[in-house]
Amino acid sequence: MKITDKNGVRDLRKGAQSTPAKKDGTGLFSLFSSELKTKQHEINNYNQDVTELRASLDAVGQALEQEPTIQNFKKFRELLSKLAKQVSSEAYRLEKVGGTPMNPRYYEIITVIDKEADKLYELVVKEQKDRMAITASVIGIKGLVVDLLT
């Protein structure tokens, strides 16, 4: 393959400057700013969703304390699992290392990406510890009833 246009290479070597990105909404500057705005909007939505989940979890947890019914238990369990999934998807990264055809053993490395989300999740779990004990006892009673029926 023969390259006939060598002018571009000479210009680069001489230090010729290319046109800089314009700040009027075109070029790389606008691409970066639009991407930054998109990420900022996603972060704001994530924070708002977690705050709403936490508030609804508190409300359902109080309802479970006042009336430990199966419906309240299911709502509490559903919200707690939803919060755990959302926080863990953003706060942690799971990486598998190893595993060859000869040695299929592998190791999993969990890395904390977002420490604030991790702290928030720990705080929510600590606050909901009593309510989770109630739900655990409900599960235990439910299991005993199933054992008695079989």
TrEMBL record:
Residue span of region Disordered: 1-21
Listed Basic and acidic residues bias regions: 1-14
Pfam families (alphabetical): DUF327
Name listed for the protein in its UniProt record: DUF327 domain-containing protein
